[in-house]
Amino acid sequence: MNTELSIEFFPPQTAEGLLKLKGERARLAALKPDFFSVTYGAGGSTRARTFAIVKEIAAEGFDAVPHLSCVGSTYTGIRETLEEFSALGIRRIVALRGDLPSGMAEAGELRYANELVEFIRAETGDAFRIIVAAYPEWHPQAKSPEADLRNFVRKVRAGADEAITQYFYNADAYFHFVEKIRDAGVEIPIIPGIMPIVSFHKLARFSDACGADIPRWMRRQLESYADDVESIRAFGLDAVTRLCERLLKGGAPGLHFYSMNQASLILEIQRRLGLEAQSGAPAQ
Ligand code: FAD
């Protein structure tokens, strides 16, 4: 069975970061991913940088997938962005609500991702494959798991083709989520989002912000390594590879890696999984 592989980048702020990303991408190209995606700052804060990287990826012969967040945006602004995506030959979009930085007013015409999905479908028909976000451990602002599930189903019914999950380290959360949405009649593929572990402190900060759980056994072990980067790397590789193995064995249709713009951990995980190179975009 072909396992879908996608890899996510964020747009660096500096010319040096951009150059480094180009190098990391060239290494990841050996994996022949189905697509590379590029995040989009809420309120359009990274718009120009996201576009620039998407163009570079497309020029390298890969399927380039921009994220598009709608909070703080107007329908006119989103329409213009969709036209630009079309002109670039983009075929897939990750459609999100986004989070405005605290203190920034929530001005804008779209409030939730389901409204963005509905608008993209109304404006562009089937021109884009629409990917949405899913939360196996539930979105941190959700009133209840049931409410989050209903909201997810609404977003899919609005026209989503596929979902990528927030990262998690507990495979049962993913299987439980998939079971719940299948019971609710949702059949789209749910691709698990995988976060390789580079630094415990960064991971802990991210996880607190986005509501992803680091299980106690992992947290305690990672904490015990303090600044021992090699031990963190070795433990993280073992834990994340085992998670991926369990997910794929349990029927996950693919893997989406949050790369943090770094290639080496993803290359090693794929090597351990025996998935070094599969079908997809042309090799460089
Ligand atoms: P929604 O699906 O709109 O859900 C947000 C919350 O509102 C949930 O609690 C939900 O239950 C509730 N809700 C949803 N619809 C309704 C409704 N109609 N009425 C009432 N409540 C509702 N952020 C960025 O800024 N840029 C990125 O590029 C980016 N990429 C991401 C990629 C992935 C794969 C993931 C998982 C997340 C990404 N994020 C990104 C983060 C994301 O924007 C945040 O998690 C955000 O808080 C929620 O976005 P969403 O699209 O899931 O929102």
Distinctive features:
single chain, 284 residues, alpha/beta, eight-stranded parallel β-barrel, 8 strands, binds flavin-adenine dinucleotide
End-to-end CA span = 24 Å
**Tally of helical runs:** 10
The largest pleated sheet is described as: 8 strands, parallel, barrel
Report the principal-axis shape: globular
Q: Which residue ranges are poorly predicted, with pLDDT under 50 across at least 5 consecutive positions?
A: 279-284
Helix/strand order:
EHEHEHEHEHEHEHHHEH
The share of residues in helices is 40-55%
Bound molecules: flavin-adenine dinucleotide
Mean pLDDT: 94
Secondary-structure class = alpha/beta
Q: How much of the sequence is in beta strands?
A: 15-25%
Q: Compute the CA-based radius of gyration.
A: 18 Å
How many extended strands?
8
The largest sheet has its strands arranged as: 1-2-3-4-5-6-7-8
Q: Would you mind describing this structure in some detail?
A:
The protein is of the alpha/beta class. An eight-stranded parallel β-barrel has the order 1-2-3-4-5-6-7-8, surrounded by four helices.
Summarize the structure.
This protein has 284 residues and is an alpha/beta fold. The protein has helices spanning 15-28, 47-59, 75-87, 113-124, 145-157, 171-183, 200-210, 216-224, 229-249, 264-273, and strands at 4-9, 35-38, 64-69, 92-96, 129-134, 162-167, 190-194, 254-258. The chain contains 10 helices and 8 strands.
